């Protein structure tokens, strides 16, 4: 059975209220009974002593049981609520006013009688009821002496069986009915109030549930769903949940849009890379096919030229494939960073030495002149080398002969240092700076060199590696002046 939260709350609170009302009802009834018995016993404490003091039969200490029985009967007629019993020193019942067939005990415990006589126990004090094996009732009692000798006790049940039956009948006909009516009215009023309160409490939850259901049916999109306006300043937890739900849906929509853009970029990138792969592959295939078919008709010089071109296309193809795999590996999230402490100056000198031949061949100066040689950083040395290599290669492609590239290392604070790669190349259009880290993007003023083709993945790889290393790459550029790529590292 499907039960809503509102129904569960209503059923639970109703059951709880009935339980609490029952506890209070019985507790109140018990308290009223205790109070009534205490007042009755306090009122009749002197009953038994007065009877012994005023009756000659009891004063003498010599009992005429028949006369006493008649006396008790007469007193019981005058006071139907009382029951009279004469006990010996041990508590044995000697005579009484009640019908013989109704008396179930032949002994009465003397301890409650002693507690009452000596005021050793707060009222009400309950004593044994001779008409029942286990029941106890309030009583009045007094010892009977013959001179200084204890002869027994006069034991008077204050609220006798006739009184209890009469009181129960009256209570049944009046107070019980009134109590039940009041309880029923109270329950009904509380039930109605409770339903109203619960409806107000659960109404926002129902609205939130409706919103979630509609959004789910729309494929977790809120574009075509009319959502409620939740009060973000409310202290009501449901309103706070509603606000967070709207924020979450906005975030999900934003993520969906990003996924769509990324998917579109991936398709575009795949199409463009396919073209880049096809071009050197087709050229490689063509030259090799020509060599295979016309090798006897070609001179040695032509064969060497064909082989050189094929090797160049094979190298270009390998470079493209390596960069595609590297970018895919980074984006897959499987790249781990292995940080260690090392002297960054030594690493930079090694990288500069690696470019000596290529810079001389292009007549470009690569300058590195640090002011300090003891800067220890915390980073991944292999990935740092990859980033700086990519940035220097990018600077070489965009710097004409006679230009220069400066590798700089500066301490920006006690815990940070900055590495910069500055070139005197063609620069980048300011409108294109935000796009240069997009895979395979090439600025409009990229130098076109016939013997070298740029596939546009180096900057994207560098940016992603730096992000994994906890750093950000920054770029400044001016057309015709050059570009400056920089990032920071943590100093040990």
Automatic annotation (TrEMBL):
SMART domains: HATPase_c, HisKA. Keywords: Kinase, Membrane, Phosphoprotein, Transferase, Transmembrane, Transmembrane helix, Two-component regulatory system. The chain crosses the membrane at residues 6-27, 178-198. The keyword Nucleotidyltransferase does not apply. It comes from the Bacteria. InterPro entries: HATPase_C_sf (IPR036890), HATPase_dom (IPR003594), His_kinase_dom (IPR005467), HisK_dim/P_dom (IPR003661), HisK_dim/P_sf (IPR036097), Sensor_HK_Regulatory (IPR050736), Sig_transdc_His_kin-like_C (IPR004358). It catalyses: ATP + protein L-histidine = ADP + protein N-phospho-L-histidine. The keyword Protein transport does not apply. Its EC number is 2.7.13.3. Pfam families: HATPase_c, HisKA. SUPFAM superfamilies: ATPase domain of HSP90 chaperone/DNA topoisomerase II/histidine kinase (SSF55874), Homodimeric domain of signal transducing histidine kinase (SSF47384). Residues 272-492 form the Histidine kinase domain. CDD domains: HATPase, HisKA. This is histidine kinase. It comes from Thalassotalea eurytherma.
């Amino acid at each position: 059975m499907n039960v809503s939260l509102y129904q569960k709350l209503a059923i639970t609170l109703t059951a709880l209220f009935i339980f609490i009302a029952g506890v209070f009802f019985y507790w109140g009834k018990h308290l009223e009974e205790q109070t009534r018995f205490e007042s009755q016993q306090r009122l009749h404490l002197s009953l038994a002593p007065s009877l012994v003091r005023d009756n000659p039969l009891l004063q003498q200490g010599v009992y005429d049981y028949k006369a006493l029985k008649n006396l008790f009967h007469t007193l019981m007629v005058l006071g139907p609520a009382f029951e009279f019993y004469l006990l010996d020193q041990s508590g044995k019942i000697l005579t009484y006013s009640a019908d013989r067939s109704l008396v179930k005990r032949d002994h009465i415990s003397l301890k409650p009688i002693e507690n009452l006589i000596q005021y050793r126990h707060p009222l009400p004090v309950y004593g044994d009821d001779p008409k029942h094996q286990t029941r106890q009732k309030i009583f009045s009692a007094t010892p009977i002496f013959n001179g200084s000798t204890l002869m027994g006790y006069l034991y008077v049940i204050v609220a006798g069986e006739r009184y209890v039956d009469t009181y129960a009948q009256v209570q049944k006909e009046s107070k019980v009915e009134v109590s039940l009516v009041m309880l029923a009215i109270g329950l009904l009023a509380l039930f109605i109030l409770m339903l109203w309160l619960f409806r107000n409490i659960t109404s926002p939850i129902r609205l939130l549930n409706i919103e979630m259901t509609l959004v789910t049916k729309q494929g977790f999109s809120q574009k075509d769903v009319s959502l409620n306006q939740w009060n973000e300043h409310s202290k009501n937890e449901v309103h706070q949940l509603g606000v967070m739900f709207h924020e979450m849906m906005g975030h999900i929509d934003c993520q969906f849009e990003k996924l769509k853009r990324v998917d579109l970029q991936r398709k575009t990138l795949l199409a463009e890379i396919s073209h880049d792969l096809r071009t050197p592959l087709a050229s490689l295939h063509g030259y090799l096919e020509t060599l295979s078919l016309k090798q006897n008709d070609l001179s040695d010089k032509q064969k060497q030229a064909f082989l050189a071109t094929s090797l160049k296309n094979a190298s270009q193809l390998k470079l493209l494939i390596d960069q595609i795999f590297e970018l895919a590996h980074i984006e897959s999230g499987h790249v781990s960073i292995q940080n260690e402490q090392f002297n960054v100056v030594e690493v930079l000198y090694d990288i500069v030495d690696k470019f000596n031949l290529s810079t001389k061949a292009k007549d470009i100066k690569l300058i590195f002149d640090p002011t300090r040689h003891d800067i220890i950083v915390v980073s991944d040395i292999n990935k740092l080398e990859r980033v700086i290599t990519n940035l220097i290669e990018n600077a070489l492609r965009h710097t004409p002969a006679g230009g220069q590239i400066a590798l700089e290392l500066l301490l920006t604070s006690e815990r940070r240092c900055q590495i910069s790669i500055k070139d005197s190349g063609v620069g980048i259009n300011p409108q294109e700076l935000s796009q240069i880290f997009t895979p395979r993007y090439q600025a409009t003023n990229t130098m076109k060199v016939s013997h070298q083709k740029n596939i546009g993945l180096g900057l994207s790889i560098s940016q992603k590696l730096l992000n994994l290393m906890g750093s950000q790459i920054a770029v400044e550029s001016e057309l015709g002046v050059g570009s400056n790529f920089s990032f920071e590292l943590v100093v040990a």
